[in-house]
Amino acid sequence: MELTTKEIFKKIKEGLPKDLKISEIRFEGCEIIIYTKSKEYIGKELPFIKELVSQLKKRIIIRPDPSLCRPPEEAEQVIKEMLPKEAGIKEINFQPEFALITVEVEKPGVAIGKGGEILRKIKREILWDIRVKRVPAIPSEVVKTLREMLYRESAFRKEFLDKVGRRIHSGWKETEWIRITALGGFREVGRSCLLLQTPESKVLLDCGIKPGTNEFPYLSVPEFDIKSIDAIVLSHAHLDHCGLIPYLYEFGYEGPLYCTTPTRDLMVLLCMDYIELLQKEGGKAPYSTKGIKEAVKRCITLEYGEVSDITPDMRLTLFNAGHILGSSIIHIHIGEGLHNVVYTGDFKFERSSLFDPASYNFQRCETIITESTYGMDKMPLRNEAEKNLMKIVSETIEKRGKVLIPVFAVGRAQDIMVILAKHGFEFPVYLDGMLWDALAIHTAYPEYLGKELQKMIFKEGFNPFLCDIFKRVGSASERKSVAESEEPCVILATSGMLTGGPAIEYLKYLAEDEKNTLLFVGYQAEGTLGRRIQKGWKEIPMEVNGKKVPVKIKCRVETVEGLSGHSDQRQIINYFKRLKSKPQRILCNHGENSKCIGLASVLHKLFKVETLAPKNLETIRLK
Predict the structure, then answer these.
(1) Disulfide check for 611: which of 367, 511, 522, 604 has CB 3.0–4.6 Å away?
(2) What are the residues whose beta carbons fall under 8 Å from the beta carbon of 336, sequence distance 6 or more?
(3) 518, exposed or middle or buried, with CB in 10 Å at 0-12, 13-18, 19+?
């Protein structure tokens, strides 16, 4: 049986030295913070804390009582004197409510020092807790705005995190059953959403939209009550997984949102763009910026591998999914060793130019919910795909043509950039439609990139994102200038499925010139303009100067497979073969009807376990 808040705090007090002057014990989510007025315990390794952590299986942190901390102006001076100049200090922000200083630097490793020694010395000197954050190599308004907002909302977050912690540690007796309800993204691609329930807890995994439609998850079912949801866990920031989360906050949800830090930042970027685009097109957005802000205020970010209690009977760990920056495979441990659920979200089990392959080292995973986007397909190997991409680009450039690559703002765009940079491409590459903002966020979190790319950036001194070939397109007039110029170039533009965005505008200019190439590098959903052109449409209706006119597709049309951030059938099978723990049940989602059913059949024959391809609105008992 799980200990309650009262019991936990009692055990902590019993395990602390008598001379430790405790001013307060409170929660920050699942963490327990002890505020002390005893200076001698600040900035030191404390054996009694290690012992308590071992006993209670909780993260426990000692912090100075704010009354001990040196005045901000003095503390700032000490930090500037003691941090090495090469760390490159850019911002110093104070959060008195947490007795915390956040220092934003160009080189966090230099600022922290070997084993964290530099920060410990500063902490002993000024008696503030200190955190170091990386300044993006390319300035990011999103990262800057979010950090400033979180600093301003410190008082709110302190109370909110304590409330979350008290709910987590409210106590529970026994988990008698576990079930999931498919609310979206089952036997389809889009509006991913599922509800994981026990008698004690209700947790929502993803809540997305279906781009290009008005189809949202089925939130009107009896099982779903916005006021009774304990937590939302977000796998990654693509709109088909995150696009409706702000709606939940705007219309009554007040609980925590768990994800990685890059996922939070990218979610804000994409959701802001989503509502702005809807408004430009005369549509009605399902939420406003208020919903996005409320989500950020209540977001609890986790690192890969960091274990966090999220309800009285659920424990969450996020693992690298290899899909986009910060994307996660969600592992939830339920009860006291009762059952483990793994939700892959979108995952890639192959090394890409951006990321390492998806993690698979789970101690236990009785139920796995896996994506099926390419579950019945066999893609070319990565090296072949990259060679094919460069061949098509080179052939177009030789003809003095332009290559238009419709991309998602996050994922394929940055992947293509790294491929072009590492192959020594020398012609201009124009980035249009939010791509520059997404790129800036990538430069803020290089620790989430693959080991090979990190080595390239930190040890070899070559950051492909900062190559001179990449040019930002910031206005409609610049877009027109690029499209009408005689120079050969590559254009990366959203939207990836030609459902809107600047890619459509470029297509109007480039479609009727045989020198040019329209190159698809990502999934084109059924019913989208991208899919129609892929199928061979030679004429498409487009709006030009307010009128619908037929535009002939005379340019070369190519698709490079193998660059997707999704796993194909071979990779999915290899992933299941590599799992440390054999699942008892596999559920297939996030794929067209035939792909989900087909993959479930293949996995059943290979692994001799129960496999299902549920439909939306079905509820399945796991235990």
Answers:
(1) 604
(2) 2
(3) buried
Q: Tell me the per-residue pLDDT of 448-483, one tens digit each, with 9 for 90 and over.
A: 999 999 999 999 999 999 999 999 998 999 999 999
Helices (H) and strands (E) in the chain, counts: 20, 28
pLDDT for the residue 27: 96
The whole-angstrom separation of Cα 508 and Cα 555 is 11
H/E element holding 320?
Answer: strand 314-320
Q: Phi-psi bin for 305: left (phi > 0), alpha (psi -120 to 50), beta?
A: left
Kind and range of the H or E element at 486?
none
- Please say if the pLDDT value at position 373 is more than 70: yes
Cα–Cα distances in angstroms (integers) from residue 179 to residues 247, 284, 337, 367, 584, in the given order: 25, 34, 16, 11, 15
User: Does the reported pTM lie above 0.90?
Assistant: yes
- State the Cα–Cα distance between residues 68 and 43, nearest whole angstrom: 13
| pLDDT score at 45 | 83
Is the pLDDT score of 325 beyond 80? yes
Nearest residue to 211 (alpha-carbon basis) of 181, 234, 183, 188: 188
**Cβ neighbours of 590 (radius 10 Å):** 28
332 burial via Cβ count (<10 Å: 0-12, 13-18, 19+): buried
The answer to whether 187 and 613 have CB atoms below 8 angstroms apart is: yes
Distance between CA atoms of 331 and 278, rounded to whole angstroms? 34
One-letter identity of residue 335: G
Between CA 565 and CA 165 the distance in angstroms is: 35
Asked whether the predicted pLDDT for residue 307 surpasses 60, the reply is yes
| 196-239: pLDDT as tens digits | 999 999 999 999 999 778 899 999 999 899 999 999 999 999 99
Q: Would the pLDDT of 1 be above 60?
A: no
Residue 543, pLDDT score? 80
CA distance 136 to 446: 9
User: Are the CB atoms for 310 and 258 separated by under 8 Å?
Assistant: yes
d(CA 319, CA 326) in angstroms, rounded, equals: 9
- For the chain, which domains are there? 5-67 (3.30.300.230), 69-154 (3.30.300.20), 171-377+565-621 (3.60.15.10), 384-559 (3.40.50.10890)
**Which pair of tokens denotes residue 211?**
């781009």
Angle subtended at Cα 525 by Cα 520 and Cα 528, rounded to the nearest 5 degrees: 85
Round to whole Å and give the CA distance between 148 and 430.
30
Which among 255, 249, 254, 236 has a CA at the least distance from the CA of 185? 236
Closest alpha carbon to 465 in 444, 489, 451 = 444
- Count the neighbouring beta carbons within 10 Å of the beta carbon of residue 463: 16
The amino acid at residue 590 is H
Residue-averaged pLDDT of the chain:
94
Asked if 557 and 518 count as a contact pair (C-beta separation under 8 A), the reply is: yes
Distances (CA, A) of 266 to 66, 113, 435: 33, 29, 11
